[in-house]
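Weekly puzzle thread! Below is a chain. First person to post its structure in token form gets bragging rights.
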Amino acid sequence: MSNDSIEQLDRGASMTEELHRLTAFSTDSEGGNPAGVWIGNELPDPDTMQAIAKQVGYSETAFLAPKTGKRRTVRYYSPEAEVPFCGHVTIASGVVLGNAEGDGTYLLDSIVGEIPVEASSKNGIKQASLTSVEPKYEQPSEQLLKQVLATLNWQTDELDNSIPPALAYAGAWHFVIAAGSKQRLDQLDYDFDQLKSLMLENDLTTIQLVWRENQTLFHSRNPFPVGGVVEDPATGAAAAALGGYLRESGLLQVPATVNIRQGEVMGRPSQIDVDIPLQGGITVTGAAVKLS
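Winning reply:
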């Protein structure tokens, strides 16, 4: 496949496909998280979707096929495995659909449930807002916390005790760990294989490392070894999970909007807006632009 932002793929009269390449949660092609968005009139088989995602090489590629009206079936693949839900590629998908078919709300049927994604424009830039499934959280075991911290080379006295470690879910499970300082967050050096093994054993999609600058601004880094990626520059699913955790645990007065800055240390700055209502799914908003 070429590196064009849109690739026309043709498997005969019965199957026309397009592969779009965008970066999500940025208005600059040099920022955000690259995403593949495959659109066809029916989904390929799982092996083919996995092969395409591996060839694309981004942290995730979404595969969309029409059902009726503005409803689509969607599946998400990293280079190594299918994932239940991915936020940044959902944002990219909403922008692709908005560009092709107009602004409005599209309903994506994923394996975790229905995900509404609204395409709109702001200051001439196309953006999208997804609303997650109902979030939830759990306290991790002391053993799992100790293992993850050891793999990250973090110490318990380097954590922010006002945001206890938690397993948070809004379509996929993420292990939220809050650093006590920006300096601690900025120093990320972990054992890739060991962390990957721990995450697979515990059904974790990313480790969401955060530092809270103030009540409405968070900085985040997200190791993603289970997807074959050292670090994700923007993680919408984890942002939704964090929003749900803050609400459900009473750590934030709601309704509220928080901003998450991610990818800065990687040189791919990302801006993620998280709207946290009194109840229901968490809404995550961001721009997406074509990769040059």
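Puzzle host: Confirmed. Bonus trivia for everyone else. The longest helix spans residues 87-101.
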